[in-house]
TrEMBL record, chains A, B:
One example of a Gene Ontology biological process annotation: negative regulation of DNA-templated transcription
Keywords, comma-separated and alphabetical: DNA-binding, Transcription, Transcription regulation
InterPro entries: Bact_HTH_transcr_reg, Chorismate_lyase_/UTRA_dom_sf, Tscrpt_reg_HTH_GntR, UTRA, WH-like_DNA-bd_sf, WH_DNA-bd_sf
Name of protein: GntR family transcriptional regulator
Domain HTH gntR-type: 7-75
SUPFAM superfamilies listed in its UniProt record: Chorismate lyase-like, Winged helix' DNA-binding domain
Keyword set includes GTP-binding: no
Domain of life: Bacteria
A Gene Ontology molecular function term of the record: DNA-binding transcription factor activity
Length: 243, 243
DNA sequence: ACCCGACAGGTTGTTTTACCAAGTTTGAGC
DNA sequence: GCTCAAACTTGGTAAAACAACCTGTCGGGT
């Protein structure tokens, strides 16, 4: 009676083949053993082998060609690029993890762009929570969070205290909403006098403005995050496959 | 004798179920018919049904719960957001599709950032091809393409003529290289005097600079694309799932 | 009357055996 | 040298069985 559940056979096969590719046993460009050979070596049936190879192909480790065989591509290089999405971190990790100070928390009239992203009438009101994040004691990013009023009620976001929990978990626990994906808009503009002062940046350096509209699986907007970054100190990096 | 190859049954099932979800026959949140019911209705075997449902789950249309059934999530909202990646279009569609003029084509010393992205020594030389893209007769974007010299030899990129073919196809046909993914860096800065003049923009408006390092499957950099956008006229949009 | 556990019948997840189709390579035979 | 069939490869379909999980119902016990 094993309390630990063993992974299914096809998943074990996936891991075994990944290890062999990473260790160089299977060189990139070479031909992988055929289905029949893998069946003989691992003692499993053909559908099991096929299931494992399908996973590897979908993850980009190998590619297959009908009639010829399956070729090793190597460890997918995309996985090595850590996607550095600014909005993500502030939604999942607790505010107490990133030092900073709360500069605003209360109901405000929505800017046009945020109203559009939230799918509400312009000038309607929503809850705004804005933090100035510091790194090494210096202010570096201005992070704003807009929530519809009905979503902010009954949460700890309206308090002036830093959240000891990720915003994503907090909203799921209190309001039952589930984040699914983010639509991101990136623009650049000159800082206002107030922003330049808060961020301690020269007035002739542009700001990178990242707007992230967080939506549920049906596409309904839940929250909008805005991250303002002085462009001389930050840049955004990301990776994606060529279609 | 059908010359057209019919799609496999599981793919037909995928399409049929997608249509029903989109048309509202299967409402989001509701329970999908069980495997047994789908087998009876479509007259296929269980592995075929399971294969179709696996595709739908991986694409985000449904989610499954062992012991209960499969629930409709709806058309994945991510698919509705057209990913608007600036670098992509210039790599795949022919230059003759986007009006503009070639402003530079020849070997130059690499800027530091591009040399880093191409994984070469700083100040080494590479081929630069720069185009000023116009929309509605107005200049809007400055697109630069850097290639290692050995990759530009024997291609039509060194000529002053617009390519009647996508760069991706051209390089694959002539040099046998295959684009796999792009590592993208986004920054903002003030335009130089020359850039402001070429783009016909005010000097106090920042530029969005998008650097895209195109790599093959092993992560080796092939080409670097730079797109310069006046920030008052363009913004970048993208969507990605919450992990 | 109420509670709780056993059990039956539903669901999806995993594995096996079997067969046919389609693409590629090889080599035997002409 | 050429043709073509055989033998390899992966892709797809069918039928069956077992395991794991959920949800009722039907008991028996308190």
């Amino acid at each position: 009676m094993s309390l630990e559940s063993v992974p299914p056979k096809y998943a074990q096969l996936v891991q075994a083949l990944q290890r062999r590719i990473e260790s160089g046993t299977y060189q990139p460009g070479s031909l992988l053993p055929s289905e029949h050979q893998l069946i003989a070596e691992f003692g499993v049936s053909r559908p099991t082998v096929v299931a494992a190879l399908r996973v590897l192909r979908e993850q980009g480790w190998i590619e297959s060609q009908q009639g010829k065989g399956r070729f090793v591509r190597g460890r997918p290089a995309m996985a090595a690029v850590e996607s550095n999405r600014r909005g993500q971190a502030y939604l999942t990790s607790p505010e107490t993890d990133s030092p900073g100070e709360l500069v605003e928390a209360g109901a405000v009239a929505l800017p046009n762009r945020v109203a559009t992203l939230l799918d509400t009438q312009p000038k309607s009101r929503a809850f705004l929570r804005r933090r100035l994040v510091t790194r090494d004691g210096e202010p570096t990013e201005l992070v704003s969070l807009w929530l519809p009023l009905e979503l902010s009620e009954g949460t700890d976001l309206t308090s002036g205290e830093p959240l000891p929990q990720g915003i994503r978990e907090h909203l799921k626990a209190r309001k039952g909403v589930r984040f699914d994906h983010i639509v991101e808009q990136i623009t650049a503009r000159m800082p206002t006098a107030g922003e330049a002062k808060q961020l301690g940046m020269p007035k002739n350096v542009p700001l990178l403005a990242v707007f992230g509209a967080v939506r549920d699986a049906s596409g309904r907007p839940l929250v909008v995050v805005e991250v303002l970054l002085p462009a001389d100190r930050h840049e955004l990096e990301d990776a994606y496959p060529v279609t």
